[in-house]
Design brief:
about 65% helix, mainly alpha, two-stranded antiparallel sheet, 2 strands
């Protein structure tokens, strides 16, 4: 593309540069910074060949950025960073401007770019903290612009000057004149400027004249500093034309300076104009002066007088000081040999100047301004360059009692001397090395005061255009005055650290000092710098301290730490520094930890260079390496923790320790001795470094992980060097050397994703074989931090607004964005076993909370990007649906569709910027893709409680979505039409629109497919729409739903009945192994207050499907599995007990009537039993009664009843035989045996003997008597056997008899009740008979066909009750199924089907319980089912014949609550 379409290619690069600016992408991270730098470099290189295109593009971007409306601190910072990036790129492109640039380009530059640059130079927002930096950057652009386009810029200045000569206003705009201060000026250009201003000066207003005076002075210094050789030549070969211009302007300015105030304003320029006339200076130094030059001589005399304080005005004195400093500064650019006269002139003023500027008792200041630091720095530097050995003023500035301003001036002057040495004759900094001790003391004191007073101040930022005191005061307007000094010390400290960075020798120098003293001073210096690295509230100082420490670790610098014992001192101090930094890193006390880790890597490289250099040093020193490395017994853990690394300890351990007290004479043996007493700091540093590197391997920042891995290489290199010296194995130093080398080799995986990198890291960590102090501590620290972080997240305070919406903050937004990324990574992972834990908890709440947070983020670029990522997460979630757990899936998906459709077409139409339009179209696409996945098979489910009929509400919801999708399709068509007309850069947009259209059609198809009943009426009309496009779209949708196999049965009149029928089928559905997933889940989650109703519903439904046995099997097996012993089986009010009771009641009513009615009537009505008593408790016996006789009576009655019961096995109902057989088998096999139902039926081996081996059949008998026979005997009237209650004496007898019968059934004798013991013989004698009876009724199960299914129809009430129970408990059912151990065997399809059906059916009708005949929970009342059963209607031939015709069906109830039967005449 670059070759064939260069213009389009360059535009694409410029667009990419624009898209990746912080104002567009949000907060910068390492990745975006690297990307931005690459874009910059690319544009700078392209500008060499396509200069106009690049500059034009950058100018447009700058204009757009400047016009942006921004809100908030974060956006303002991003705007400032974007402007700086653009300005810096412009400056570099302009600096490399090709020489053959056309005149047309030059015009374009001036017309478009210059106004934008002037915007920064002339205007700055009120209170904008970045204004100074932006002005500096803009001035750099203007400087580069003027290098090759001087005529264009000069023309603008000249035009403005011309305009001002004829302007009559007093208040005039002089901004364009001020451009003189920033442009590139060489000798020829300066002459042009002087000529132009001299020509027009007189005609200007006073304001303009002052602007010219001020700006020309700065233009002069631009020339001198950028072209010093040209200025030097001026004194070698005088240039008459330059001197003429300067002299003419001098005279004009001299004439302008009528008053004291004007003189003060013009003197600094006059001295410069005089400097430009070497011959005039020569002339006025003579005794006899030319008449034309007399005013120059008078000017110099006035200057001297004012400087000495005899000028009569403070204003003139200050101006004289400024002029003299300018003279001194200019003189340093002239060689002594070329012109000694100017130096004589300087010498005549410099003493007075120093006395004026450097008087501690009366610091120099101009008017109300604080001390003019910049002026003092210029003076100090110039004086040093003129006379480096005359250092009296240095001593004044170094004095401890001098003002901090003097210290600041001195340090900055020294920094300038070091960094700016353009001319050969300027003296070097080594002339000041003699003051190293005083400078170190100053550093120590400043550090102490700055750190002591810093507390929690905000980060300081340097503003180069302000003087020192101005900086302080401008920052202090809201702070207490007592903080002013702390601020001063911080600025001084920053300057001192920069000074160390510039020349470490200046503070390392120790003339005439012994080894230990030298080491002590070095240790204090490095300790101070190390202490500054973690100072997060002083980021600039911390950064400079790191740079300074890096310079101090260069080979030349380390040799100066202690020339007497370099290696030993290196190990002691450098290891201490390493230990301290690594401890801070592992305790997360560093904000920019990745940057510090990079710096640490550089330190390790420097250390290894030093070790390599000293590898061949004398053997004793080298042996010291070994002693420090492995020669000492270091505890494997705890050594590090013994050291409290606060500042005082750091200072103490960095100073010459016990092992190094003797300096040069210190032998290896002495070292070893010292080493044995305390663990060497070297070993502790290595341990701590290992810990730090391990800890960074699980950093969320990929770059930090890679840097940490690369650091392992330098550990290995150090081990290689040391083992080479000591001739021992490398594994002695690094037991895990091989693994470390592998870590280092992986660190080059820059292109890999984070997931792949972490996987690689984990694989390498598993290869670590040898436990060391480092990896042990790292694992312990990691576990501790993991526990701490887990607690923090669990207890994270969720600050919410009144409406429940989480508060929007940058931190919360970042957390949400990272959560979305982590969840997407988890769901994208399709490796084996990745889905194992996904279904452990429901994902719904988290997803809804994420959407609710993101939807209120607004429509900024970053917000749109987060929304797009969230939509992509939803799509991935639906793709992994089978592996996830949902509690209320249909409700959840409906809510998600509601939220996500809000984002479709939300902002794409309003976006003005093409790039933002692209982003919003991407969001439309992502939203629709997510909505497509959500709508697949999704029945619409309106919000409950809106008072609208269900079908109407569904219909309205369908219409809402369908209309939105149609609007989106229309929008796509309109945009395509526009694109076709406009042409141009639209291919990408066309592809986007085609994809979006396809998604929208798919969404409409999915919507209609799942909601034909409520949606077809709304959509069918589109097939006849007048618009062909709309008609075609509908046909496309219709084709798709036919391809998908849409069931149009839902349009039938019987759709509701069909859905209820499918619901019953689903609940009675049986798995391959006989399990009933939905029924058992419902049984486990329904509250116990609804168990009676559930028991009735389940028995009725399962019996109607001929599956009662399977229901009983599952229920009884569960009961048996949970029972502790035979005695507790079916004794509680469990659901299984309720089901058993209902079965006995419904199926056993006729049997009990036939069995007990005759027996009870004999006892009640027979004359033989009229006056018989059955009381056997002596405490309740009446006086006339005989205990033995009563016992005989009770025994006689019991025997009669018992024999009648055990003789009735042939009459025992087949349904109850099925219940008893199932109970018998369930107690045998329990659910743990995963055999099929058929196997369970055929296997006759008694399983109670497995679960409860003492008594296998006892469970059947016990349950039958407890739940069936005995309740009817004790309460015959309530059971419906008798018409009225029996007399109390008979009731008492029946109750006592039931106890005896229950004991026989339970196979136990009476022990607790003394009055019942006499019956134990009878009980014991009947055990076998009872057992035979129980085996008879339980050992055989009648086939399904043989059983008369008395409940072979289902009443409306039971189905409605089932609907209500499922609806109210569907969330719990979902949770139970996902957590159940059989979940994997059964799968989630049953639950999905149930949720879909419930969504179609909607919520149950909310009727009061009393209004629904079938909802009564009182199972003792006579119900329709019981009536049918009791009268054996189902056995009659008429009923069977009617049933086969299917001409009746029952649904609903009458007003009186009776069931209604419908007659189908056509059948």
């Amino acid at each position: 593309m670059a070759a064939h379409r260069p213009v389009e290619w360059v535009q694409a690069v410029v667009s990419r540069f624009d898209e990746q600016l912080p104002i567009k992408t949000g907060q910068q991270n390492t990745h975006t910074k690297v990307s931005t730098e690459h874009n910059k470099e690319c544009l700078i290189n392209i500008s060499k060949y396509k200069f106009s295109l690049v500059i034009s593009g950058l100018t447009t971007i700058l204009k757009n950025v400047n016009n942006m409306r921004i809100f908030g601190e974060a956006a303002e910072k991003n705007l400032y960073l974007s402007q700086l990036i653009i300005l810096d790129t412009l400056e570099k492109c302009l600096a490399g401007q090709p020489k053959d640039t056309m005149r047309l380009d030059e015009t374009m530059l001036v017309k478009q770019l210059l106004p934008e640059i002037c915007h920064f130079l002339h205007t700055c927002r009120e209170g904008n903290q970045h204004a100074a930096e932006l002005r500096n950057s803009a001035s750099g652009v203007l400087f580069s612009l003027s290098c090759n386009n001087f005529n264009a810029v000069f023309s603008r200045i000249s035009t403005r000057l011309q305009e001002l000569t004829v302007c009559s206003e007093d208040n005039v705009d002089v901004h364009d004149i001020e451009l003189l201060q920033y442009i590139n000026v060489d000798c020829a250009k300066l002459k042009r400027l002087l000529k132009e201003t001299a020509f027009k000066f007189k005609a200007l207003k006073k304001v303009a004249q002052l602007a010219v005076i001020n700006s020309l002075e700065k233009a002069f210094w631009n020339w001198v500093e950028n072209y010093p050789d040209e200025f030097t030549k001026l004194y070698q070969i005088p240039q008459t034309d330059m001197a003429e211009c300067a002299e003419k302007l001098f005279d004009l300015v001299d004439g302008f300076a009528e008053s004291t105030k004007r003189k003060a304003a013009v003197w600094p320029l006059q001295i410069i104009l005089l400097i430009l006339c070497p011959e005039i200076i020569q002339d006025i130094s003579k005794d006899v002066v030319d008449e034309n030059n007399m005013n120059k001589k008078l000017f110099l005399d006035s200057l001297r007088k004012a400087l000495a304080g005899h000028g009569g005005s403070r204003q003139l004195t200050e101006s004289a000081a400024i002029a003299c400093v300018k003279l001194c500064k200019a003189s340093t650019y002239i060689n002594w040999e070329d012109n000694s006269v100017i130096f004589l002139l300087v010498q005549s003023m410099v003493v007075d100047l120093k006395n004026l500027l450097f008087n501690p008792s009366k610091p120099f200041s101009r008017g109300s301004q604080p001390a003019d630091v910049d002026l003092m720095i210029d003076c100090l530097v110039s004086c040093f360059r003129i006379s480096p050995h005359n250092n009296q003023h240095f001593k004044i500035c170094l004095a401890q009692n001098s003002p901090s301003t003097f210290h600041y001036v001195l340090v900055n002057s020294l920094h300038r001397i070091i960094t700016n040495s353009a001319l050969d004759w300027w003296p070097k900094i080594d002339a000041v090395y003699c003051h190293s001790v005083e400078l170190r003391n100053m550093f120590g004191e400043t550090l102490h005061k700055a750190v002591q007073g810093c507390g929690a101040h905000p980060a300081i930022r340097m503003a180069p255009s302000l003087t020192f005191k101005e900086k302080v005061t401008s920052l202090k307007f809201k702070e207490k005055p007592t903080d002013l000094e702390t601020r001063s010390y911080k600025y001084l400290l920053l300057s001192m650290v920069k000074l160390i960075h510039a020349d470490p020798k200046l503070l390392l120098c120790n003339p005439r000092k012994q080894g230990p003293e030298t080491q002590g001073s070095t240790a204090e210096l490095i300790t101070g710098l190390v202490q500054l690295v973690p100072q997060s509230h002083m980021p600039e100082i911390a950064q400079e301290a790191m740079e300074a420490l890096l310079v101090l670790h260069q080979l030349d610098s380390i040799d100066l730490w202690n020339p007497d014992a370099p290696v030993e001192t290196f190990w002691e101090i450098s290891s201490q520094m390493l230990f301290y930094i690594c401890k801070k890193l592992t305790s997360h006390q560093m904000l920019s930890s990745t940057e510090i880790l990079k710096w640490l890597r550089e330190i390790l490289i420097c250390r290894n260079k030093f070790l390599l250099k000293n590898k061949q040093a004398d053997r004793s020193s080298c042996h010291f390496l070994f002693l420090y490395g492995v020669g000492c017994d270091v505890p494997s853990s705890g050594a590090t923790s013994q050291m409290s690394m606060d500042h005082e300890e750091l200072i103490r351990t960095c100073t010459p320790g016990a092992s190094l007290r003797k300096g040069k004479g210190n032998s290896s043996m002495d070292s070893a001795a010292g080493c044995s007493g305390t663990p060497p700091i070297c070993r502790q540093a290595q341990t701590k470094l290992e810990v730090a590197l391990y800890m960074f391997l699980w950093s969320p920042d990929t770059e930090a992980v890679l840097v940490a891995m690369s650091c392992f290489r330098h550990l290995c290199e150090e081990a290689d060097i040391r083992c080479g010296v000591d001739e021992v194995s490398v594994h002695n130093f690094l037991p895990n050397y091989n693994t470390f080398m592998e870590f280092a080799s992986v660190s080059n995986m820059m292109s890999t994703g984070r997931a792949a990198l972490q996987k690689r890291v984990m694989a390498l960590l598993r290869r670590i074989e040898h436990p060391t102090a480092g990896n042990t501590e790292a694992w312990e620290d990691t576990h501790a931090k993991w526990e701490q972080a887990t607690k923090l997240i669990l207890n994270y305070p969720k600050a919410k607004m009144e409406d429940g919406q989480v508060l929007l903050t940058d931190t919360n937004t970042q957390f949400v964005e990272q959560t979305i990324a982590i969840m997407k990574n988890l769901l994208d992972n399709h490796t084996e076993g990745s889905s194992e834990h996904l279904g452990q908890a429901s994902i719904e709440t988290m997803m809804l909370n994420l959407v609710r947070y993101v939807r209120v983020l607004g429509n900024m670029v970053h917000a749109i990007q987060i929304k797009t990522k969230l939509c992509q997460l939803v799509e991935v979630m639906m793709a992994r649906r089978d592996d996830l757990s949902f509690c209320q899936e249909m409700k959840f998906r409906n809510k998600m569709v509601e939220y996500l459709t809000d984002w479709v077409m939300g902002t794409s139409n309003q976006a003005a910027d093409d790039d933002v339009k692209c982003l919003t179209r991407d969001l439309d696409q992502a939203s629709m893709e997510a909505v497509v996945s959500l709508l697949a098979g999704l029945p619409l489910q309106p919000e409950e409680g809106d008072g609208v009929e269900l079908m109407e509400a569904k219909s309205q919801l369908f219409l809402k979505y369908f209309t939105l999708f149609m609007n989106l399709l229309n929008d796509c068509s309109e945009v395509e039409d526009e694109n076709a007309q406009t042409g141009g850069r639209k291919r990408g947009m066309s592809r986007r629109l085609a994809s979006l259209r396809h998604c929208t059609v798919l969404a409409m198809s999915n919507l209609l497919n799942a909601n034909v009943d409520s949606g077809l009426m709304h959509s069918i009309g589109l097939g006849y729409h007048k618009d062909l496009q709309t008609r075609a779209t509908f046909m496309e949708v219709l084709t798709k739903i036919l391809q998908q196999g849409t069931e149009f049965d839902t349009l039938a009149e019987t759709v509701l009945a069909d859905r209820f029928e499918r619901l019953v089928e689903l609940v009675t559905m049986m798995g391959d192994q006989g399990e009933l997933p939905i029924a058992m889940a419902l049984a486990n989650v329904v509250p116990c207050s609804q168990w009676d109703e559930l028991a009735r519903v389940l028995v009725t439904l399962f019996d109607s499907r001929h599956l009662l046995y399977q229901l009983l099997w599952n229920m009884f097996s569960k009961e048996v599995e949970l029972a502790d012993s035979m005695q507790t089986l079916f004794r509680g009010n469990s659901l299984a007990s309720k089901i058993m009771t209902f079965c006995f009641k419904v199926y056993g009513a006729t049997y009990l009537q036939k069995l007990l009615d005759p027996l009870l009537r004999i006892v009640i009505t027979s004359s033989d039993w009229q006056h018989v008593s059955f009381e056997v408790d002596p405490t309740r016996l009446e006086q006339s009664e005989s205990l033995e006789e009563n016992q005989r009576n009770l025994l006689q009655m019991t025997e009669k009843f018992f024999h009648a019961i055990i003789s009735s096995s042939s009459e025992f109902p087949p349904q109850l035989r099925s219940v008893c057989h199932c109970l018998y088998q369930a107690t045998c096999h329990s659910l743990l045996n995963k055999a099929t139902v058929k196997e369970k039926k055929e296997n006759k081996k008694s399983v109670v003997s497995q679960r409860f081996p003492q008594n296998s059949i006892g469970a059947v008998g016990s349950a039958m008597f407890l739940r069936f026979i005995n309740p009817a005997i004790v309460s015959p009237y309530e059971a419906g056997i008798l018409d009225k209650k029996p007399p109390p004496r008979i009731e008492r007898g029946l109750k006592l008899m039931s106890k005896i019968l229950q004991s026989i059934a339970n196979h136990v004798l009476f022990t607790k009740e003394e009055h019942m013991r006499p019956f134990n013989d009878f009980v014991k004698s009947n055990f076998d008979a009872a057992r035979r009876f129980f085996l008879d009724i339980a050992s055989d199960c009648p086939t399904s066909d043989a059983v008369n299914h008395s409940l072979s129809f289902i009443s409306d009430g039971n189905v409605l009750a089932l609907h209500r129970l499922l609806w109210n408990n569907q969330e719990k059912i979902g949770q139970y199924l996902s957590s159940n151990r059989d979940h994997k065997a059964v799968g989630r399809r049953p639950f999905d089907k149930m949720a879909t059906l419930l969504a179609y059916l909607g919520p149950p009708e909310h009727k009061p319980v009393a209004d629904t005949h079938w909802s009564s929970l009182n199972l003792t009342s006579s119900k329709f089912e019981e009536f049918m059963t009791r009268h054996q209607v189902h056995e009659k031939e008429e009923f069977k014949a009617l049933k086969t015709l299917s001409i009746f069906y029952q649904a609903g109830t009458s007003k009186a609550g009776n069931p209604i039967f419908y007659y189908v005449a056509r059948r």
